[in-house]
Design brief:
Chain lengths: 290, 290
Amino acid sequence: MEILEKYPPMIEKRLDELMECIPVCAPEKICKEAMKYSLSAGGKRIRPALVCAFAEMAGGDLSAALDPACALEMIHTFSLIHDDMPCMDDDDFRRGRPSCHKKYGEAVALLAGDALECYAFEVIACAENLSHECRSSLIMTLAKAVGVSGMIGGQTIDIGNEGKGFSEDVLFRMYSMKTCALIRCACAMGCICGGRSDLVKKAEEYGEALGLAFQIVDDILDITSDTETLGKPTGSDREQDKATYPAVFGLEAAREKAAALTARAVQIAGEFPDNEPLISLTEKLLYRVK
Amino acid sequence: MEILEKYPPMIEKRLDELMECIPVCAPEKICKEAMKYSLSAGGKRIRPALVCAFAEMAGGDLSAALDPACALEMIHTFSLIHDDMPCMDDDDFRRGRPSCHKKYGEAVALLAGDALECYAFEVIACAENLSHECRSSLIMTLAKAVGVSGMIGGQTIDIGNEGKGFSEDVLFRMYSMKTCALIRCACAMGCICGGRSDLVKKAEEYGEALGLAFQIVDDILDITSDTETLGKPTGSDREQDKATYPAVFGLEAAREKAAALTARAVQIAGEFPDNEPLISLTEKLLYRVK
């Protein structure tokens, strides 16, 4: 069964359950509502699905991987909430709905992002199906991927990405941190959940190639797609004069690069056991339209 | 030796070391600088000192408590950075220096706060002097204290605290979450580091009383002190028409309440072994001028 069909329904269900576990009273309830609003906005759930897929390929139990997978999706959602805020990308829409700060105001959106960030770590620390050693290892891996050497570092580089001619090096560094860090992390977390730390390095190589291809396709869609299909305004990169692979090297070169990276990801995926669903996912992401 | 003399120097040193551990390159370096700027801004280091003090009272090893103590201070610092931002309290100064967003801009301040939040969890997950079970327990305790049922929930209530007559109940709920959550957590984390989970409940009762007294004294100082002594503008609560204990019940009643809560904290402190430094700290915080 396809990765993006098999896992997302159970991820949605578990995300709902995990949010229901948080006790709140009326005065602070709005913050939890904002967390749920953004978390339930949909999206492809690629990162948590990768955690589950790699956990199963590593011979692990899906039930043990589900909470870490949801934690990773909380982190991804927190980063989107903060990224959309006026002081960052200033995006009014996300997945076809008003972004969190447009719906709840900036203060609540800021706090909802903060709360999702720490709840992710709480969920892993409490994951009863995993050994304490495994929980430490997952939290370490996730926190490194999120921090200033990972996703947040990439967002920092992106702040400076306005009207500037980034070198290819800096552009790829930004992609590798801002986008690939969490995707690499998803693959690594899956292996750790499956008790196969020896597979982490190869899984991260796959995640890096997939993440780069994914981001370049994202940038191509920002140029070629329309708002209705994408669920968010297109052309925002050009509007903000952002350096992206297609903006710097042209659409044709970008398509070739994305295809080459996908081929590389497929090659690495081939080294894992029971790899058909992973290879199918990898190829599908190259040809997606949103 | 006094708690606020004994532990802060080693906390400062370890915070510096932990920040040096983060590998960054030039493009994202500004984010790490902002983290260090806010983390090194001083402050009394009460929360991490409490972690150390409770760890020693619980018969634990100070070296095991130092990293969790630093993690808690990172969380406290992240909350101050975000709290000072224009969409929150909009404070230009913190501890006598420009606040993080005034120095580095809002986007970097937002990301520096986010990065400190996750680095705190990474530091605990990597703490080699602690068992993996202890690390899980500390992360669980810390994340609960930070989240929407704790500090962040308290900040959410505080957002609505403008020009509104809060009931005493809501006021104390806000204090208990916004201020006491991390102080309770500090005392609990110390007990966990010392291997005495059985002391956590009593330590939290102490933290609650101390935290409430501490916040009421803070609110009194906002009315009675001057900017130079306090290192931040005074009168900001009145300016923003915020409900605080002294604003609602008057200075005299606030002083009495703070004294009664301090007496209660001293009483609970007396039930711990080797409690003289803790009792001395508790009384000193009541009579502080900044």
